[in-house]
Amino acid sequence: MKILQANGASIPAIGMGTWTLSGSKCYDMVTAALEAGYRHVDTAAMYENEREVGEAIRASSVAREEIFLTTKVWHADLAAADFQRSVEASLKRLGLDYVNLVLIHWPSKTVPLAETIGALNKVAEQGLARHIGVSNFTTGLLAEAVSLSDRPLACNQVEYHPFLNQDRVLATCRRAGMAQISYCPLGRGLSVMAEPAIEKAAQAHGRSPAQIVLRWHVQQDGVGAIPRTSKPERLKENLTVFDFELSPDEMEEISALTGTNQRICDFGFSPEWDPV
pLDDT (tens digit, 9 = 90+) per residue, 119-177? Predict the structure, then answer.
């Protein structure tokens, strides 16, 4: 397993995404992921599955200190007092004393960023989170967050897949020593897997198209990915991407697809995205 070193945080490059998983299905999938070798689990207050994620982690034979756990604070809770309450409530649902990483899930259009960054630093000072970071931040917001934070930010978690260009954000993360963690890394709902460049690489390496795309992510400097699956048999497949390497030509051909710029997660509360 490749480990991303990001401003003091050691983040396994492939993690288990849990968005849309709930109830016993979430518990079972996190349990199976840990058994399959995953050591990075991603959740959020908004996912409404922290209780099941925490139960699976606590019941696992894997030691807590070996698991890198991320949760996030929703954009409606970014005022200082609300942020503190959100993190404390997340820990209560998880049944844990700390998380490895707390992220601002989405930037706010109303709460000053300085206030939220202050609250983010406070939960780290209190030991509720080992590391702090952001999600869905544009280059401008990211630069502002870095300048406002007393502690280094570990990552920016953003939508990233072969149909979406994130060159600007990735370059900003690298300059700040941060990791970029890709959500929707396989282009959920898009026709990424049917692209000839990906199919050709899959045939050449004897791998699935999904493995090719995940390899494309982790072969980029400072990039990790948190694929979500509801199929236990896919867990091991998604993790088995560290025993082969894409050629420079294959990387270039897949990266060329990002010019299509199809974004899956774009909402009324989203920031104004960076131009390409």
Answer: 999 999 999 999 999 999 999 999 999 999 999 999 999 999 999 999 999 999 999 99
Q: Is 47 a catalytic residue?
A: yes
Correct CATH for 3-190+219-244 of 3.90.1150.10, 3.40.50.720, 3.20.20.100, 3.30.310.50: 3.20.20.100
Which contiguous run of DSSP H or E holds residue 88? helix 80-94
Task: Show the DSSP H helices in 149-244 as ranges.
Answer: 167-175, 196-205, 209-218, 232-239
The H or E element that residue 18 is part of is: none
Q: What is the pTM of this model?
A: 0.97
- Among the listed residues 38, 47, 160, 183, the single catalytic one is 47
CB 254 within 8 A of CB 159: no
Give one DSSP letter per residue of 35-86, joined into a string. Answer: HHT--EEE--GGGT-HHHHHHHHHHSSS-GGG-EEEEEE-GGG-SHHHHHHH
Q: What are phi and psi of 96, to 5 degrees?
A: -125, 160
Helices and strands in the chain, H and E counts: 10, 10
